[in-house]
Amino acid sequence: MSTLLISHPAFANHLVPPGHPERPERMRAVEEALGAEAFQPLVREEAPLVEAEVAALAHPRAFVEALESVRPREGMVRIDGDTTMSPGTWEALLRALGAATHGVDEVVAGRHKNAFCAMRPPGHHAEAQVAMGFCFFNFAVVAAKHAQKKHGLEKVAIVDFDVHHGNGTQALVWSDPSVFYASTHQMPLFPGTGARSETGVGNVVNCPMRAGDGGQKFHEAFEQSILPSLKTFSPDLIVISAGFDAHERDPLGGLELKAEDYAWMTRALLDVAEQHSGGRVVSVLEGGYDLKGLGDSTAAHVRALMGS
Fold first, then answer.
1. Cα–Cα distance between 166 and 159 in angstroms, integer?
2. Cβ neighbours, 10 Å, residue 281
3. How far is Cα 187 from Cα 183, in angstroms, rounded to an integer?
4. 159: part of which helix (H) or strand (E)?
5. Which residues are catalytic?
6. Which residue among 60, 110, 265, 282 is buried most deeply as judged by most CB within 10 Å?
7. pLDDT at position 308
8. What is the β-pairing status of strands 83-85 and 77-80?
9. Which tens digit of pLDDT belongs to each residue from 136-165?
10. How do strand 3-7 and strand 83-85 relate by DSSP bridges?
11. Strands 43-46 and 77-80
12. What pLDDT is stored for residue 107 in this prediction?
């Protein structure tokens, strides 16, 4: 079966202030990388526009409505120190919700073996009632809850290899034993969460790293902690929070990963999915702020999803 690529031009219409790292050019870098001949077998679909109600799978309706109420018709509205809404942000958010849930629908239905959602803004810092860290809605958690609510899956795992800890994802699943969350991330670094001692109800596995640790330490974290715990959890679906800002070129982190490290991690997760999840994997783009590093890492990740 094929790999599904879901994206939309609207993701480039979420504008940010000059000099902001989470910029529209990120989408162009991903599009150029996945435009190479090796990616011709991808099935490409546009992210559907869904109702804001979909965000209520992870967030209180009051928060969703409050966020919608402040969206600007012109100019920009600052939500916090580094999170800004522009006139195009709301459509980007709705289509990102659409990408994540459509990816789940297609993979669970067996029409595609896995899916990659090339979208922005990212989502893993978004807590139940807090937009922060470039993030507004938590798309990985929405995907997990959608899989459970619509398709009846019992257990969903979220694996996050962004250089920053997904504080929002962790907080949203903290007391929910039906959702497993594992993260590799740099510490100390924004947002300051993600210590090994943070374990939820036994469903959270954090593997903090130090600047300069590199690929070997990441491999060890996966092999010694994340993959064994993931196999024990035995999920019906794996959602990947695919952040590529641990790449050696990235300006926001210092973990020194290379593109091939992302390919290795992806293949490792696919192996677990084959054993426990019917092969079902849905990946959503999170961080990655050096354009070449982002393009190279995304290409390596998607090649692995395709089985190359």
1. 10
2. 26
3. 12
4. strand 156-160
5. 125
6. 282
7. 78
8. antiparallel
9. 999 999 999 999 999 999 999 999 999 999
10. unpaired
11. unpaired
12. 98
